[in-house]
Amino acid sequence: MLKFFFKKQLNNLICMQQSQIVKKINLTDKENQILNTIMQFRNDTNIQSVLRIAGGWVRDKLMGNESHDIDITIDNMSGEQFVQKMKEYFESKNIKVSGFGVTRLNPEQSKHLETACIKILDQSIDFVNLRGETYTEDSRTPVIIVGTPEQDAFRRDLTINSLFYNLNTQEIEDFTKMGLQDLQNGIIRTPLDPYITFKDDPLRILRTFRFATRFGFQIVEEIPKVIALQDVKKALKTKVSRERIGIEMDWMLKSSKCLQGLNQYHQLGLWHIIFELPILQQHQCSVKVDDQGKYHLDSYECLQNLYKLKHFPQFQNIYGFESQEQFNFYIHLCSICMPYEKIIYKKGKQMESAIIYIVAESLKMPRKQTDDVFNACRLVEQFKLLKNEQINNNFKNLVNFLLEAKYLWELIIYLDYLQEYMKNPDTSFQFHQEFKNFIYSQNLQEFYNVKALIDGNEIKQIWNVEAKKIKEVKQNILIWQAMNPKATKEDLQQYIQQNKEQFVVNQ
């Protein structure tokens, strides 16, 4: 199956990619101005540098795509030295420059070499010297040496990212002799033996899948064979920080091609490395390491079944999301995380769901995303209880659900539908649709933003309750407001005078 995945429709894909690749770099007017400014400085100061734009910008321009990520290599000095001379030159000409700075070494952010930047026409341009790299066995942080263009090209992750655009000659340079052809044919290949490339820096494994997924390119057969090796998987697990894994996964989860990319993670046995569960003894995970494989398989199958839904959620029809990417992120990550919800582990003095561990620790996602994903998965069970009730006769549970779910309420409906579909592919979407229709008909889709018509101080005075009871009263007030959407504060006060006891239980 895996071999078929990497070979299928190769001829069609090659034909498609050939029609997209151009033979030369076509510069925009702004790019022309920027590069002419840089070359004017070089020629006026006679510094004799050979300047080359490297990597993604060259690839994207040859594919006919625009790119604003311009990285320029220098052959005879550091990026900092070059930019400092450029800054002094511009200032001597009374030309305003800004954005001057140096990014120091930061391996956690994949900054293995100091990079200098300067803004030209309000666009940041990075400068770095050509380099070669050597690695130690236990780290993906390289030892940097000043290199040749050939060394710089071969140290890169993929041949399609190893191309240069020489500013001096205005020519495309392909020092690996494979980059242009692979770009033309839609091929993902490493410049060196993939075993060397991936053992040196295992993050390149994830980047390989990212670019293959993004462009729909074919991965050469040698790559999955190497990734399947246990020592390569171990290198990915031990040498790459969770922050870097999280950055790569953030891109994948936001992509509409997420399943295509993560399918490869599953087939090559990387799922448990990416979505790592608590394994240390102090975590006291409720599921032993040897038994965690079942949950990882369920997680993959949950994502797989998401794309089989007869009523697949469409971003433009889902409430609460600002972009397709934001919606993709949540629907994909929630689908992946749902099977882990019942696993618990010890976090400090408390027991928490493994979902929190996966999102916060394994993927290093921000607190808001962690809370949102956990709550969405948790509230699926609360939604199931609502399905067994006459909603229009029981606003209390409905309002409590909406207040907890916030803008994720409609996403949760689809997560429940996904769970039902996995049990029975013929399951109907009718109830879920009727629930959605009811929420909109009652104008409750943004009810989580509604404020109680009377505040905490007024509640305390009216009911003479302790602070811990105020929340309960306020909740009941919101339920009343949901049932009486056009009511004013005066209407509420009048109702309270006659039905005060309804708002407090066991006063």
Q: Nutshell version of this structure?
A:
The protein has helices at 2-7, 10-18, 29-45, 56-62, 79-92, 149-154, 179-185, 194-200, 203-215, 222-227, 230-239, 242-254, 258-267, 271-274, 293-306, 324-337, 354-362, 367-387, 395-405, 409-423, 430-441, 456-463, 467-483, 489-499, and strands spanning 51-54, 70-74, 98-103, 115-120, 123-129, 131-134, 143-146, 164-166, 171-173, 187-188, 218-219, 344-347, 350-353. The chain is of the alpha+beta class and 507 residues long. Belongs to the tRNA nucleotidyltransferase/poly(A) polymerase family.
Tell me what the structure shows.
Residues 51-189 form the Poly A polymerase head domain. Keywords: RNA-binding, Transferase. Belongs to the tRNA nucleotidyltransferase/poly(A) polymerase family. GO terms for molecular function: ATP:3'-cytidine-cytidine-tRNA adenylyltransferase activity; CC tRNA cytidylyltransferase activity; RNA binding. This is Poly A polymerase head domain-containing protein. The protein has 507 residues and is an alpha+beta fold. It has three domains: 2-240, Beta Polymerase, domain 2; 266-447, no CATH class; 450-503. Helix content is 51%, strand content 11%. The protein contains 24 helices and 13 strands. The chain has a seven-stranded mixed sheet. Strand 12 (344-347) and strand 13 (350-353) form a beta hairpin. The N and C termini lie far apart (65 Å).
